[in-house]
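Handoff note, outgoing to incoming analyst
You'll be picking up this chain. Sequence as last confirmed:
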Amino acid sequence: MKPTLFILAAGMGSRYGGLKQLDGLGPSGETIMDYSVYDALRAGFGKIVFVIRHDFEQEFREKIISKYEGQVPVEVVFQDITSLPDGYKPNPDRTKPWGTNHAVLMGKDAIKEPFAVINADDYYGADSFQLLADFLRSVEGKKGEYCMIGFRIENTLSENGGVSRGLCQVSEQGFLTGVNECHGIQNKDGRLIQVLEDGTEAPFPEGASVSMNMWGFTPDYFDYSMREFIKFLDVNGNELKKEFYIPTVVNTLINSGEATLKVIQTPSKWFGVTYAADRQATVDMFRQLVDRGLYPDKLF
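Most recent structure output, in case you need it:
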């Protein structure tokens, strides 16, 4: 059975200034998602599942999904604030989504095979998808054996401002022991720094492995996620802004011994559109990749 690619595409890009998932950045108007789907198909993925919001479903189907007809099976699931387990209701004043792992939970009825989770607005590189596909094929029929594609921090920065990254602690055997979210990471005067909660700056380790939200799971992850989401809601269900993140669940499962997570290092360079000013650099990068023969001028 081929693995499935699960793309998180429900969020709006507040810093970018629009719905960047639908922005045409490639030479023929391709979105970043199109490159991810293209790389995933080359690596051997067999199905694509998107999680989106109801309010832009029609535009998404017209601009994105229509391209893939006849290329690969595609399903769409929806993330909504009211999508909660039985007996739970959101605070009526809440407008903020429940977070990345809530988005993952929306795929539980559509995905029954090993699957990858990625962001819609990140370019991960062909090597990353090949490494991920190879791992997922190796864990078919297993439980509690997950992975994450680790990126070298220097390969994930923006020239237009600080970025948030999950700093990975990795054992000598290559397994994740924890993820700490760090903010405001940037290259400043030739050195890496991060901005702490109090606004001060601190050094950030050079060559560190960071998470770019590129994960590999087996379907049992949905059961663990639902269990942990209920625990989260019992504590935070009436909050307006608290979110349920993938690293939260991963850290819990690692610490409890219920799962292991292999960190697979990729040589790929990430790029994307964290800020509006990143757009032209991303357009230029795709043009360069096409000119080098790594992608056709028109993907689909």
